[in-house]
Amino acid sequence: MDAEEMPFPRLNGISVVTGTCFVVGEVVGAGIVALPYTMKLVSWWGIPLFFLGAFIMSLCGVLLSHSYVLAFRDVKNREEIRDPYPQIAEKAYGKPAKHCIIIMLNLSLLFVCVVFLLLLGEIFSEFAPIHGLSHRNQMRIWFVVSSFVLIPLTMFGTPKDFWGIGLLASICSAIAGVMICLNLAITSSRYGYTVPHRYRINPETALAVFGTISFTFGGNAIFPTIQNDLREPHKFPRAVVFGYCVVLVLYTGVSIGAFLVFDTRIEEDLLTSFARSEIHDKCIYFRVYTMLAQISICGHLLAAFVIIINPVNQQVEYILKSPVEFCWQRVVLRTICVMVILITAVAIPNFGPVLSLLGGSFFTLLSVVFPIIFYNKLKEGQLALWKKFGLLAIMCITVSSAIGNFYVESKNIFKVIKGSYET
């Protein structure tokens, strides 16, 4: 039996089922409203791209979970591990690798929280518009409101202290998916399906789509933090595979339905497409389902925000030697983290380019490249040549695409800041 498959010292933590809920709750989010727009950009090529994204991310998630077991097999007290991903890097390549992961991990997770806050502002401004203000200023007000709601929710210690939030995120995702499907069914029954247009895919579009798919299917970087709280960490790969199966079904179903029904009317945020559609003012059921979908997505984003910012908070507290138990230092540090996210969201009030840039840069490295490199190092001399070649091919393709995506989306973010960005 391989080392990563052997029984692991048990901890009074969460089960595999709860771990699966955390995986679904952490991965699903922006994708359910953003991937239909991706289908609009690349047409039916979106389906194989979704399958490829889910396969690569789940594979690398499994490799990262095996790396966790290999790295911490001899640790007596796992409750003292507050930065598992950086410590995996240190076990593989020493302190320079650890410091690199710390910087990239914290930056990427902070920007994920920025994207979630941007989405919350977008949805709230459609759900409860503030008359007399521009759309951008309405979003900024909702950023502030959402931030103050989130601050007390970020005060939990580790995932085992807020296991219910992972379950809540999964339930909200499921409800949102059902409501979106009902709306698509209502629209198709009234207006029928469309024959989607053929879209000419240029290199910049392809690179932007790569970033969006990497972001929406990514999230492996937080998996070691979840795995660390499992009663039996060696079983976490099951949670990863089950979780990604749920994510793929949900993402693909919603995206295909939206593409067939709305086609060119799909905007960057699918719920905005619903709110601005003709049927929204004509059918009360459509309005109700849209409202329930908006509430569910907001609930998911709030819960996912808490899950994703937790590793950042733990890392900051570890660096500054803050006590493990609840204390005033925790309140101050975690409030400052949320305020930094709020300020960034106010400066860049458009989630599309930020989402794609994150997916194509930080997420590609943290979710694909580093898990492969660390696993290969920790299993040094034990991997078959064909496995090494396959993992190397995945790395080369993703890195090349990431470089191109960084160039394309950096230009788009500057356009957003200047107010000249168009979807």
Question: Please, could you describe this protein's structure?
Answer:
By secondary structure, the chain is mostly helical. The chain has a single domain, classed as Amino acid/polyamine transporter I (Up-down Bundle), CATH 1.20.1740.10. 74% of the residues lie in helices and 0% in strands. The chain is built from 16 helices and no strands. Helix 14 runs antiparallel to helix 16. The mean pLDDT is 79.
List the helices and strands and how they pair.
Layout: H1 16-27, H2 30-42, H3 46-72, H4 84-93, H5 95-127, H6 135-153, H7 163-191, H8 203-217, H9 223-227, H10 236-261, H11 270-275, H12 284-319, H13 328-347, H14 351-360, H15 362-378, H16 385-418
Helix pairs in contact: 1-7, 1-10, 1-12, 2-8, 2-10, 3-4, 3-10, 3-15, 4-5, 4-15, 5-6, 5-12, 5-13, 5-14, 6-13, 7-10, 7-12, 8-14, 8-16, 12-13, 14-15, 14-16, 15-16
What's a concise summary of this model?
With 423 residues, the protein is mostly helical. Helix content is 74%, strand content 0%. The chain has a single domain, classed as Amino acid/polyamine transporter I.
Number of domain units: 1
Give the low-pLDDT segments.
Answer: none
CATH superfamily: Amino acid/polyamine transporter I
**How many extended strands?**
0
CATH topology: Amino acid/polyamine transporter I
Q: What proportion of the residues is helical, as a percent range?
A: over 70%
The level 1 CATH classification is: Mainly Alpha
Radius of gyration: 21 Å
CATH architecture verdict: Up-down Bundle
Backbone shape: globular
Helix/strand order: HHHHHHHHHHHHHHHH
Largest sheet: none
Structural class, judged by helices and strands?
mainly alpha
Keywords: Membrane, Transmembrane, Transmembrane helix
Transmembrane segments: 12-37, 49-72, 100-121, 141-158, 165-186, 206-227, 239-262, 284-310, 331-348, 354-377, 389-408
Subcellular location: Membrane
GO molecular function: L-amino acid transmembrane transporter activity
